[in-house]
Design brief:
The protein is an alpha+beta fold and 675 residues long. Helix content is 36%, strand content 23%. It is built from 19 helices and 22 strands. Strands 11, 12, 13, 14, 15, 16 and 17 form a 7-stranded mixed sheet that branches. A 5-stranded antiparallel sheet has the order 2-1-5-4-3. It has a 5-stranded antiparallel sheet with strand order 7-6-10-9-8, sandwiched between helices. Helix 10 packs antiparallel against helix 11 (330-355) and helix 13 packs across helix 14. The radius of gyration is 41 Å and the shape is elongated. The termini are far apart.
């Protein structure tokens, strides 16, 4: 380009000119990039300078990888090189046809090519060659004049016939469809169209309003607004919504559509629909499991924090009540305070019960036998329909706890369904075929029990069904903590429970570990936590204390280690009243300094399990090493310690759960001293 007079231009005009040139260059570059035909620019030595997307797909290489190669490394052909040389030297731009050898990676193909010599921006730049390559799929090269045919060095093999389509749409696990973009009327439906919604493909096409009516009314407006906006401008969109099946039941689906940009001719929407009900169920189960785990941790912490003030409130309230005469006007008020503290203790007990592991070790059982045992107890006055698999379904569970779980789930399903027509129990095997990140159920076969109350579900929130850890005040609705226990037990056996409520009723799907029948090879029983030791036998209420003579000796020495001063003072007061000598400490280290294990003999160590610093178990081990016959009573209201939750304590020791009554405290201490 000549530069004469260029200096007379203003800088703004020069910048504008350069911007226009750059914009024009980018315009043609982008247009070249998206052309369906393969384009490549070659240097004089046939090195690839640039290539569009179609050529990169043909070569199977990136742009950076192509720039390091020559054209014959991608399309090895002597006649190609001769044609390029003729175009470069003589300016011959005629089209030519080439059949490439079968040995090259892209296989035997026929191409129609044209080469055009071009020059760069500067006059002194080396000439370049623009090559257009068009693949002739399934076609033999057309007849061309002999003068334009480049004779190959060897006879070219016959082009291979175009391969038959290997995709059978009817076998796809998705519905594939097409609809008119202006009328939203289906023009084609195939694949899994019938298996997903229950409607044959012909029914998709027969009803003009089927496009929108297949979408659940609660989701219809939002989904259709999205599809209309994409149809107006072109592009892609995806939506997850509830579709209505032929039975009227909702089914979660995910759908992706693509619409061409507006232009001449009829435009169609292409769509793919897949069923995602199982995936959403697994996600909901994972979400519920995370909530329950967090709630269990919170319940354990709350129970521990409530127990200490409840012990103080109940203990001192009981002491004051015993000190008042029956005629005292304050006695009635104090009785209410003690009763309220007792109710609070019950709530703390429910929290602890929820936080503890309660599942018994699973045994190999037949699911149908459990259903037959519990069925007569279900849904009084409601028709019961039991559907069992033709083959017996075996699983791993505790039969007694499983019966309790089925009863609780059936009661809840009935409570949350209006106009209950019948109760269905469906026993079968089910397969989880989808893998979801943190799902509680992994892909595989499970024993499955569906508990369905047929009617109209009231739409209870699935995420909160298993979180009713406190009893319902309405005695006519016993389900609550029993649902939470059922959920925890099934989870600990290796299964899970899903809940759904809709216009067809409320249903629980109970998944349990699958076990082969006894006739088949018996698999190893899933590992399970050892059953907790049975709780100690209830201690009989001690007889009313008898006033002892002042000269009566002490019944023994008790070392009390408790970090809560109020509880420590209450225990000291009660035990001294019962004629025990008491040594007290707030920490294990303080106890070791106050009462050395090698000092005066201690008859009983009464210690909290959870102490700041050294724990109660470690403290007991130190004392037991010096005094093997020392009796130990552990007290605790905190259940994060697995040994406490499982009832695992050294022989000769006992456990007292907070909150405890004063009579229970006196009883267990006297039991330890064998009084």
């Amino acid at each position: 380009m000549e530069r004469t007079g260029f200096e007379q231009w203003k800088p703004r005009e020069v910048a504008r000119l350069l911007a226009l040139v750059e914009a024009e260059r980018r315009y043609y570059q982008e247009m070249m990039a998206v052309l369906p035909a393969a384009l490549v620019v070659l240097a004089q030595d046939r090195t690839i300078l640039s290539a569009n997307m179609a050529f990169r797909r043909l070569a199977g290489l990136s742009g950076e990888e192509l720039r390091k190669r020559k054209i014959e490394q991608i399309l090895p052909s002597d006649e190609l090189i001769e044609c390029l040389r003729a175009a470069h030297v003589h300016g011959d731009t005629a089209a030519f046809f080439i059949n490439l050898p079968f040995e090259i990676p892209i296989g035997l193909r026929s191409f129609r090519m044209a080469a055009v010599p071009i020059r760069g921006w500067e006059d002194d730049m080396e000439p370049e060659t623009l090559v257009l390559i068009q693949e002739l799929e399934g076609q033999a090269p057309p007849e061309i004049p002999p003068s334009k045919v480049v004779e190959p060095l060897e006879p070219a093999p016959e082009p291979a016939p175009a391969p038959a389509s290997v995709i059978d749409f009817d076998t796809l696990p998705a519905a594939v469809w097409q609809a008119d973009a202006s009328t939203f009327v289906f023009t084609y439906a195939g694949g899994a169209a019938q298996s997903i919604l229950g409607y044959a493909p012909e029914q998709w096409l027969a009803e003009p309003q089927f496009f929108s009516e297949r979408i659940h009314p609660d989701d219809r407006a939002e989904v259709m607004d999205l599809y209309r906006s994409v149809a107006a401008t072109g592009g892609e969109a995806s939506a997850e919504y509830r579709a209505l099946t032929a039975s009227g039941a909702p089914s979660w689906c995910r759908e992706t559509i693509r619409v061409p940009a507006p232009g001449a001719g009829v435009r169609h929407i292409a769509g793919v629909m897949t069923a995602i009900g199982e995936r959403r169920q697994l996600e909901a189960q994972s979400f519920a499991a995370a909530r329950i785990d967090a709630l269990r941790a919170l319940s354990s912490r709350l129970a521990h924090d409530l127990n200490n003030p409840l012990m103080i409130l109940a203990g001192y309230g009981e002491e004051l009540l015993n000190a008042l005469s029956f005629a005292d006007p304050l006695r009635e008020d104090l009785t209410e305070v003690v009763a309220a503290s007792s109710r609070l203790s019950e709530l703390a007990g429910h929290l602890l019960s929820f936080a503890r592991s309660q599942a018994k070790a699973p045994a190999k059982i037949q699911l149908g036998d459990v259903i037959a045992t519990v069925a007569p107890k279900l849904g009084a006055g409601i028709d019961l329909d039991i559907v069992s698999s033709r083959d017996a379904v075996w699983t791993f569970a505790d039969p007694e706890q499983l019966e309790e779980a089925i009863s609780a789930l059936a009661a809840f399903a009935i409570e949350n369904t209006s106009g209950v027509l019948r109760l269905n129990l469906i026993c079968h095997t089910g397969r989880i075929a989808e893998r979801v990140g943190h799902a509680t159920l992994k892909p595989g076969v499970y024993a499955r029990l569906d508990i369905q109350a047929v009617g109209v579900g009231i739409g209870a929130a699935a995420s909160g069904v298993f979180e009713s850890i406190l009893p319902n005040k309405d005695l006519n609705k016993p389900a609550g903590p029993a649902i939470a226990r059922a959920y925890l037990n099934v989870r600990q056996w290796g299964g899970d429970i899903a809940f759904s409520s809709s216009g067809q009723g409320s249903m629980f799907a109970v998944y349990l570990p699958y076990a082969e029948s006894p006739a088949e090879a018996v698999p190893e029983t899933p590992a399970a936590a050892a059953p907790p030791e049975p709780p100690p036998a209830p201690v009989p209420e001690p007889p009313p204390p008898v006033e002892a003579p002042l000269v009566e000796p002490s019944l023994g020495t008790v070392l009390v280690v408790e970090d809560e001063p109020g509880i420590r003072g209450l225990v000291r007061k009660i035990l001294k009243r019962e004629r025990f000598d008491v040594i007290e400490a707030g920490r294990a280290e303080e106890a070791l300094q106050t009462a050395s294990p090698h000092g005066a003999p201690i008859g009983l160590l009464l210690t909290d399990v959870m102490l700041p610093g050294m724990g109660g178990r470690e403290l007991a081990e130190m004392y037991k090493a010096a005094q093997p016959n020392l009796k130990v009573v552990y007290i605790s209201g905190f259940t994060d310690d697995e040994s406490v939750r499982a009832g695992e304590f050294p022989p000769g020791s006992m456990f007292l759960q907070k909150p405890f009554t004063l009579s229970a405290l006196v009883g267990i201490v006297k039991q330890a001293f064998e009084l």
